[in-house]
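Input (structure):
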């Protein structure tokens, strides 16, 4: 699996910043987010470029590299990130084993490190829970200097479509709402796969229990 857990103080982070493709890798485009870099980065990874080569190409071909923040992970677990020298807020990135984190407008440079350390230390924890827990760890380490208002969870696995694509916008504590959405979605995960690949195997759903007045 490849996945991204992300939260920020601006709206629609799930639409603008995280990108992932099954059996290929994942890319994030942050700070003055250039949405074009996500699909372009995935195409580079699909063509066999490493995460490091992908980030370098994205920055080399960007019109405003000094304002961009980009990270990538490739199919071999290689990671890379870049933070532009003209980003005015505190910003940093940190790499770990099979993971990478970047942030800007953050309270201190150690926020991405805290996220990576949680992810690496969560042995035996399911993948999605690692991503959600990493968001919590980043917030506990200081998070952003502004209250976060949107959060997203994007995961790809074996199919060509996202296994999970959940988004929260303009909500106080969106990370808590994101976890609630995941807890509601997880029991239906297999159903959504089966209905695509083997629709004749889908079992009728039980009608909801009536609410007692």
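Output (sequence):
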């Amino acid at each position: 699996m490849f996945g991204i857990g992300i939260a920020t103080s601006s709206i629609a982070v799930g639409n603008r910043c995280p990108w992932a493709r099954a059996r290929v890798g994942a890319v994030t485009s942050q700070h003055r987010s250039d949405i074009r870099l996500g699909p372009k980065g995935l195409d580079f990874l699909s063509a066999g470029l490493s995460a490091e080569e992908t980030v370098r190409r994205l920055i080399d071909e960007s019109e405003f590299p000094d304002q961009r923040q980009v990270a990538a992970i490739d199919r071999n677990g290689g990671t890379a990130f870049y933070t532009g020298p003209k980003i005015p807020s505190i910003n940093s990135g940190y790499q770990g084993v099979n993971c990478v984190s970047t942030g800007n407008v953050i309270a201190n440079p150690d926020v991405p490190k805290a996220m990576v350390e949680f992810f690496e230390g969560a042995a035996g924890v399911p993948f999605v829970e690692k991503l959600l827990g990493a968001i919590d760890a980043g917030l506990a380490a200081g998070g952003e200097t502004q209250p976060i208002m949107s959060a997203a969870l994007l995961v790809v696995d074996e199919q060509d479509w996202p296994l999970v694509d959940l988004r929260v916008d303009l909500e106080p504590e969106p990370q808590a709402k994101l976890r609630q959405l995941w807890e509601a979605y997880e029991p239906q995960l297999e159903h959504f796969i089966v209905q695509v690949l083997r629709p004749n195997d889908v079992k009728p759903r039980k009608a909801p229990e009536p609410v007692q007045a």
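Notes: The helical segments are 13-16, 37-46, 51-60, 111-121, 127-140, 174-185, 189-197. The domain at 2-201 is CATH 3.60.20.10 (Glutamine Phosphoribosylpyrophosphate, subunit 1, domain 1).
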